[in-house]
Amino acid sequence: MGYDLDLAERLRERLAAEPGVREKRMFGGLAFLVDGHLAVSASGRGGLLVRCDAGDQDALQRDPRVGPFVMHGRPMTGWVHVDVDGSVGEADLDLWLDHGLAFARSLPPR
Asked: Taking every annotated instance into account, which residue ranges of this chain make up the domain TfoX N-terminal (predicted)?
């Protein structure tokens, strides 16, 4: 399964005006990096990966569309996976993007 092209375009449109953002194909998906740090990605497994503060992870996962990001059978701290389809509104997408952007911007530039 490849990444969702419609989701990738929605991300691209919403992030176009953000300073320091560039896109890069990574891990079968399309990642959006801020100053060299991955913020969000249209996942190669489908859906959206969001980098977040570990302290926000439980609150984000209260949304039934959000779960842990699991890599090699292990949940990854500071990452969530969001089931995104065409019915997800811009406000929800913006919320997840805000988390990813805020976390990436909290890190020193690479």
From this structure: 14-104
